[in-house]
Amino acid sequence: MNLRQIGAHSRAQSEAQSIAVMKAVLVRPMSANGLIQALGMKSKTGALKRTLAELMADGLIEYTIPDKPTNRLQKYRLTDKGRNAFEEHR
Predict the structure, then answer these.
(1) Which CATH number characterizes residue 85's domain?
(2) Which of 31, 46, 66, 74 pairs with 2 at a CA distance of 20 to 30 A?
Protein backbone atom coordinates (compact mmCIF):
# COMPACT_ATOMS: atom_id res chain seq x y z
CA MET A 1 0.00 0.00 0.00
CA ASN A 2 1.54 3.34 -1.02
CA LEU A 3 1.03 6.72 0.65
CA ARG A 4 -1.77 7.71 -1.74
CA GLN A 5 -3.64 4.49 -0.96
CA ILE A 6 -3.11 4.99 2.78
CA GLY A 7 -4.47 8.54 2.53
CA ALA A 8 -7.48 7.38 0.51
CA HIS A 9 -8.15 4.57 2.98
CA SER A 10 -7.87 6.99 5.92
CA ARG A 11 -10.29 9.45 4.28
CA ALA A 12 -12.76 6.67 3.49
CA GLN A 13 -12.56 5.43 7.08
CA SER A 14 -13.00 8.97 8.39
CA GLU A 15 -15.98 9.57 6.11
CA ALA A 16 -17.57 6.31 7.23
CA GLN A 17 -17.12 7.31 10.86
CA SER A 18 -18.56 10.78 10.15
CA ILE A 19 -21.65 9.21 8.59
CA ALA A 20 -21.99 6.81 11.53
CA VAL A 21 -21.79 9.69 14.04
CA MET A 22 -24.33 11.75 12.10
CA LYS A 23 -26.67 8.76 11.89
CA ALA A 24 -26.35 8.17 15.65
CA VAL A 25 -27.25 11.76 16.58
CA LEU A 26 -29.96 12.03 13.91
CA VAL A 27 -32.60 10.59 16.23
CA ARG A 28 -31.55 12.20 19.51
CA PRO A 29 -28.58 14.05 21.03
CA MET A 30 -25.88 11.77 22.41
CA SER A 31 -22.99 12.17 24.80
CA ALA A 32 -19.48 11.14 23.79
CA ASN A 33 -19.93 7.93 25.82
CA GLY A 34 -23.26 7.31 24.13
CA LEU A 35 -21.59 7.68 20.73
CA ILE A 36 -18.83 5.27 21.74
CA GLN A 37 -21.45 2.66 22.63
CA ALA A 38 -23.58 3.37 19.54
CA LEU A 39 -20.54 2.97 17.29
CA GLY A 40 -19.49 -0.26 19.03
CA MET A 41 -16.20 1.16 20.25
CA LYS A 42 -14.41 0.36 23.50
CA SER A 43 -13.11 3.87 24.18
CA LYS A 44 -12.88 7.37 22.75
CA THR A 45 -10.14 7.17 20.13
CA GLY A 46 -8.15 9.95 18.54
CA ALA A 47 -9.96 9.23 15.28
CA LEU A 48 -13.34 9.79 16.96
CA LYS A 49 -12.11 13.02 18.54
CA ARG A 50 -10.92 14.25 15.12
CA THR A 51 -14.21 13.23 13.50
CA LEU A 52 -16.23 15.12 16.12
CA ALA A 53 -13.98 18.20 15.77
CA GLU A 54 -14.30 18.13 11.96
CA LEU A 55 -18.08 17.72 12.07
CA MET A 56 -18.35 20.62 14.52
CA ALA A 57 -15.99 22.81 12.47
CA ASP A 58 -18.09 22.10 9.37
CA GLY A 59 -21.26 23.03 11.26
CA LEU A 60 -22.79 19.56 10.87
CA ILE A 61 -23.09 18.82 14.58
CA GLU A 62 -23.18 21.08 17.62
CA TYR A 63 -23.13 20.94 21.40
CA THR A 64 -26.43 20.92 23.25
CA ILE A 65 -24.86 23.30 25.81
CA PRO A 66 -22.69 25.49 23.54
CA ASP A 67 -21.45 27.91 26.20
CA LYS A 68 -20.19 25.06 28.44
CA PRO A 69 -18.25 22.59 26.24
CA THR A 70 -16.84 20.64 29.20
CA ASN A 71 -20.15 20.25 31.05
CA ARG A 72 -20.65 16.66 32.20
CA LEU A 73 -24.14 16.68 30.68
CA GLN A 74 -22.84 17.80 27.27
CA LYS A 75 -24.22 16.05 24.20
CA TYR A 76 -23.87 16.35 20.44
CA ARG A 77 -26.79 16.97 18.11
CA LEU A 78 -27.20 17.28 14.36
CA THR A 79 -27.65 20.78 12.97
CA ASP A 80 -30.01 21.59 10.11
CA LYS A 81 -26.98 21.70 7.83
CA GLY A 82 -25.95 18.27 9.13
CA ARG A 83 -29.44 16.88 8.60
CA ASN A 84 -29.41 18.13 5.00
CA ALA A 85 -25.94 16.70 4.37
CA PHE A 86 -26.97 13.34 5.85
CA GLU A 87 -30.11 13.20 3.71
CA GLU A 88 -28.09 14.05 0.58
CA HIS A 89 -25.68 11.23 1.40
CA ARG A 90 -28.46 8.67 1.64
Answers:
(1) 1.10.10.10
(2) 46
Supply the range of the domain harboring residue 22.
3-89
Q: Looking at the whole model, is its pTM more than 0.85?
A: no
Q: Please, is 16 exposed, middle or buried when counting C-beta atoms within 10 Å of its C-beta (0-12, 13-18, 19+)? A: exposed
C-beta of residue 29 within 8 angstroms of C-beta of residue 76: yes
Burial of 11 (0-12, 13-18, 19+ CB in 10 A): exposed
pLDDT in tens, 7-50: 444 565 678 999 999 999 998 999 999 999 999 999 888 999 99
C-alpha closest to that of 24 among 51, 3, 43: 51
